[in-house]
């Protein structure tokens, strides 16, 4: 491979492809749990290499070895504009893989204004998720929840997208209810809340046929991150199995 070839590598594509292989492979009996897990961890590795290649100052090099070949990826020093829902997927992945030190880089993207919200419901979703995961305190989490529920009931929410209110009910509030029981250190309530949240995850990802090809629907990454958090912090486990929430991932 010539030097020019060694200065290019598709980290973003690798991240996206490995996430799809993880999500779909989790539901295929022919794919081993180890293979599925490997796809997940490789996705997180590509994610961080992609981000480092983007944000490190121009002139710096991101080293990487693939199949025995050494790559030297020049950093671009780019200022990004990442939709908050896509950015949260990066947060979930990093928590699930237990690579907590990488959260600092991702939070720096938020704190430096490189993450944006397409609508008020998305801003509230992000605020609630980060607060419940202990990554960024909300000024008033109760007020944020009240604002969210008020917005769901208003006509204004429909202006933020046809399915925006449904997402807020099934995904945002489902996640909040699970994490609330974790912080209350109530395993029985946690199990019940997680079961309900997984039912809502299914409702969200199957209510519209256009969602059937989106990899995120195959595994509930927000709830997988919540399960990882609950297990690592309090030893909480679930008393049921669900294809949307592979236990061999969050218990590893």
TrEMBL record:
This is Immunity protein 49 of polymorphic toxin system.
